[in-house]
Amino acid sequence: MFGLVCFFILMGLTLGNRGPMTWPEKFVKDSVSWTQGLFYKPAAQVAGFFEDIRQLRVIYTENKTLKLTLTQYARDTQRLNDLEAQNKRLMEALGFTERQRQANVYTYRIAEVVTMDTDPYNTTVTINLGDKDGIKENMAVMTVDGLIGRVSKVFGFHSNVQLLNEINDSDNNSKAIAVTVKGNENQPFGIIESYADTGELVMNKVEHADDMKVGDTIITSGMGQVFPKGIEVGTIASIGPGEFGITYKVMVKPKASFSHIREVFVVEVPEVK
């Protein structure tokens, strides 16, 4: 049968265009086409299957590359944002030190916060300046916004800072802050002794509140021999009667934030000779 089929095919090729095909030739042509169709469709499906697998591998590789590129882009964007934020903070710090240099003779040593314990009952901040940098205990520490605390312990290369929200009149390790009202000629006097649950500093021993009003800026008076004079602490939030109704109690809203601190200034007061 195979030989017969080949014979008729050969006859068709050799005779060329000789008029209409005979029925045996048509039969052979149809048989051959039908047989080719049986093999062509499965072969095409198999070839298409392997082509799909190849395309899947290409897509997988491209997807992996895109993910790596996207991750790298996200890291670079985050790093750029951090650098821009740091640059903004340092520019503000530079402007702050320039203004302070004109206002007083203090030296402001900028330091970075390396660790911050967020324990609500014992907030401890560690900065990257220590004994080798001339840092001493009880030096005032502030940000560009205002006073935040004092140096409580000094090590060789680092120092611990006690924040104002840890100030407590019943704690011997806590230092009260002698304060007054900025720009007030009468210089009403008071002492910040504690930190209230409302997020405000408690200013006691105020004998004369007539010279104070809500919104006034409270600054250090320099009389406590720990915090130098003229550092902004906060603004008056409310004024009320104190203990036994003899003095007044003033609630002060801190100007500086005690969370998310990045850079601080240690205030160095020149020694009096």
What does this structure look like?
- The structure is a single chain.
- The chain is α+β, with helices and mostly antiparallel strands and 273 residues long.
- It folds into two domains: 1-13 and 23-103; 104-268, Rod shape-determining protein MreC, domain 2 (Thrombin, subunit H, Beta Barrel).
- It is built from two helices and twelve strands; from the N terminus they run ααββββββββββββ.
- It has helices at residues 2-15, 23-103, and strands at 107-117, 124-127, 140-142, 147-154, 159-163, 177-181, 189-195, 201-206, 217-220, 232-241, 248-254, 263-268.
- A six-stranded antiparallel β-barrel has the order 1-2-5-4-3-12.
- Strand 3 (140-142) and strand 4 (147-154) form a beta hairpin.
- Helix 1 (2-15) packs across helix 2 (23-103).
- The longest helix is centred in the first third of the chain and has 81 residues, at 23-103.
- It starts with a helix and ends in a 5-residue tail after the last strand.
- The mean pLDDT is 80.
Per DSSP, what share of the residues sits in E-state strands of 2 or more residues? 25-35%
Rg calculated over all Cα atoms: 42 Å
CATH class of the largest domain: Mainly Beta
- Record the strand order, biggest sheet: 1-2-5-4-3-12
What is the molecular shape?
elongated
What is the number of independent domains? 2
Order of helices and strands: HHEEEEEEEEEEEE
**Average pLDDT level:** 80
For the largest beta-sheet, the strand count, sense and barrel status come to: 6 strands, antiparallel, barrel
Q: Which blocks of ≥5 consecutive residues have pLDDT under 50?
A: none
DSSP strand tally: 12
CATH superfamily of the largest domain: Rod shape-determining protein MreC, domain 2
Helix content range? 25-40%
Distance between the termini: 125 Å
In terms of structural class, how would the helical and strand content be classed? alpha+beta
CATH topology grouping of the largest domain: Thrombin, subunit H
| Count of DSSP-assigned helices | 2
CATH architecture annotation name of the largest domain: Beta Barrel
